[in-house]
Amino acid sequence: MRTQVGIIGAGPAGLLLSHLLHLQGIDSVVLESRSREQIESTIRAGVLEQGTMDLLTETGVGERMKAEGALHHGFELAFEGKRRRIDLTDLTGKAITVYAQHEVIKDLVAARVAAQGALHFGVSDVSLHDIDGTTPTIRFRHEGEAHDLQCDFIIGCDGSQGISRNSIPEALRRDYQRVYPFGWFGILAEAPPSSDELIYARHERGFALVSTRSPNVQRMYFQCDPKDNVDNWSDDRIWAELHARVDSDEGHKVVEGKIFQKNIVGMRSFVSTTMQHGRLFLAGDAAHIVPPTGAKGLNLAVSDVRILSDALRAFYKEDRSDKLESYSETALKRIWRAEHFSYWMTRMMHRLDDASPFEQQLQVAELEHVTTSRSAAISMAENYVGAVAV
Ligand code: APR
Ligand code: PHB
Predict the structure, then answer these.
(1) The organism sits in which domain of life (predicted)?
(2) What are 186-206's pLDDT values in tens digits?
(3) What pTM does this model have?
(4) How many domains does the chain have?
(5) What is the per-residue pLDDT across 17-42, written as a single tens digit (0 to 9) for each?
(6) Does residue 293's CB lie within 6 angstroms of at least one atom of ligand 2?
(7) Does some domain include residue 216?
(8) Most ligand 2 atoms within 8 A of CB, residue of 197, 198, 344 to mutate
(9) What is the DSSP secondary-structure string of 217-250?
(10) Which of 94, 233, 249, 257 sits at a 20 to 30 Å CA gap from 287?
(11) Backbone phi and psi for residue 150, each to the nearest 5 degrees, phi listed first
């Protein structure tokens, strides 16, 4: 078996890369350890930056996003019993779409299948060979048989738990990490929207976020102990906590409904450098993680593969390898910007058990600043919609 680009992982990074390469006439094979049903139903994030929306639309996979996603022109910050709006479109000329990641996955899988792209689910025992030699090879098992896939390039899009990152020699790698002492408790509920836009709430009891999935299904989160168990939380206890954190003195209330999904996720910031070695390149969660507060995870995966697909195009169509050589450096600029933004928003919005009363007042002062100073609001909005120059 042979291909030009061997891609490990069918998350947003791997699938979109394969789609973008196909549009350039570059051949790829995607290898995924889980089943199609699993990847199409795993609940993850849901905010698409303007640039992500535009790329999906321009490359022919944005139709359902446009029809079923919710276009938002702003979001709300709730603190000290009040709500203040960040008007993204007024501040940046751009917007976001709330559209679940697994719906993006469905659209990308459908496009790859329609184009008869090579996409193998349920592979196992994936290992990489000769990544800095002349015949980079992915060895794996599929439907009971062992295979060797020879590639020009191997792209590790296998998420935070994947195997690709560890194929870069440790002596050449440097990892940066911060683990937060809190997590997010996420729910899906059958209910009408509580608000026209997302609400990020800072409260003494902890952070909460009101998001949406459709006119009938809402997604909400609240800060929790990452070691807590969903079984400790009855529906009544969850609604009481959300009311306490999100309802405002100005009369806004969270709308309750039947909760049909509960999960707890830990939070960390992580960057692994370098993102390339020989003929191996990393993209998406395989190389970096952000806490979900800034809604950057999916969008960073998209920006990595946009840079990488352009570098591969330049290699195959213009016979130049400079863009490939500088891939890691180019991608890391946006990654570090998003790491800082996500960290900043996380620190501003969450209850920090080690924060002194002085530092808690600084959180409020910062929220007052971004909701009253136009230049501070522009900076936040540019980061949120992904319009910041890096
Ligand atoms: N072999 C094949 N596939 C693998 C392997 C392996 N050894 N290890 C992991 N995978 C698959 C996973 O099953 C998963 O489907 O790689 C895929 C990685 O996908 P994601 O974790 O979604 O990562 P990525 O495509 O980088 O997208 C990042 O996901 O978690 C969110 O916030 C994050 O939105 C961001 C997005
Ligand atoms: C979501 O809808 O899942 C969501 C929205 C905004 C975030 C994180 C997650 O910052």
Answers:
(1) Bacteria
(2) 999 999 999 999 999 999 999
(3) 0.97
(4) 1
(5) 999 999 999 999 999 999 999 999 99
(6) yes
(7) no
(8) 198
(9) EEEEEEEE-TT--GGG--HHHHHHHHHHHH--TT
(10) 94
(11) -85, 135
